[in-house]
Write a structure and sequence with these properties.
324 residues, alpha/beta, Rossmann fold, 2 domains, eight-stranded mixed β-sheet, two-stranded antiparallel ribbon, 10 helices, 30% helix, 23% strand
Amino acid sequence: MKKFRYINTIILFSIGLSLSAQNSFPVDSSYNIPREQRKFAKRYPYAFPAKDSLPKGVIEYRNQVYLSLENTPFGKRDLHLDIFKPEKEGKYPAVIMVHGGGWRSGTKDMQVPMAQMIAKEGFVTIPVEYQLSLEAKYPAAVHNIKAAIRWVRANAEKYDINPDKIAISGCSAGGHLAALIGMTNGLEHFEGKMGLLDYSSEVQAIMDIDGVLNFLAPSSLNLKRKPNSADISWFGGSFEEKPGIWKEASSIYWANENSVPILFLNSGYSRFHAGQDELIGMLNEWGVYQEVHKFNIKVHPFWLFHPWVDETVLYMVDFLNKVL
């Protein structure tokens, strides 16, 4: 068995994958900060990665287990989150933070610099781990993150969180997940059966950073896709094969007059904003508050790098102060 596992590890590394130390579930590490920086280094040589650096006056709790999964194809699996909170006692709004990576790659650590910066401004920030497509297809990630929100409410007293003021943010694929989770507040179909089901998974605000809202929009469907593209891999089939899932996972179809306030932060790549204009028109009719800010740069993961992360955090904190 050990020899077999070793051989599998070598094969996976050869195609950009690895096996996690925890029960050998597959991990794709292709979405990482050095690789993303190389893509735009010549155009923006002044940009540099935001660092994990705990600010003065902020306390951290790393790798807290919020969910234990017993019967995955890869054995037992714990999911973790990090918590950053102001040192001063009080009751603070919380922000669940969801990383990007095409539902296939990335880690919660990529949200940590932003989480630390926002926590310094008087919020409890919580980057979360969730199951990616090599491990579990849609809707596992949705169920994971809703379970994380319930865990946060159950532990609100311990971490000085106001359980009535919880927002969700996400970047790229995480932005899509944040919007979908926020737009499906209270819908049993999306809840899943994971974690502490006696608590609510509802959020009071959404921050979508370059995350798609409508997989059926022309700018989404007209992309030239390979069979192993990020969305096809996550959904377990193309639009032609699974049109119902592609629509179900599009948050725009769940928007209504009770939707919560939403902040959109956009890069210079319009395809990541598919469905946004239509959604804004609907929200305006219903009187639901929203903001849009665009970074006119051809950098998709701008939130990972200075100087753009600084402006990103300013927009987020300003929005949170308005709506929470």
